[in-house]
Amino acid sequence: FSDPTAEGPVIQDANIRALKAGMTTDGVFEIVRRVREQSNVKLAFMTYANPVFHYGYERFFGRCEELGVSAIIVPDLPMRKRRRWRSLQVPTMWI
Q1: Which residue of 7, 47, 53, 87 has the fewest CB atoms within a 10 Å radius of its CB?
Q2: How far apart are alpha carbons 87 and 31 in whole angstroms?
Q3: Cα dist from 83 to 61, 79, 86, 94, 95, whole Å
């Protein structure tokens, strides 16, 4: 996410370094795919709602399901959007 203002300086710096190095949502999914080649360890994503929105809800959650992501934490998800996400048949533990 390009504006991690809700985070402390350490996470803000990490976000900026990742973006400068070319990290994208597809890049994160590629890392998960490679981890899955060697491990079935449970993985949880913590993200802002905006990157999920821009990636596309169905596409994002579909990739998570395909790659076996166990949970998704979205601390800034507005309550009015929660209903929309649930309508996508996203498992409740994800939101």
Answers
A1: 87
A2: 28
A3: 15, 7, 5, 13, 10
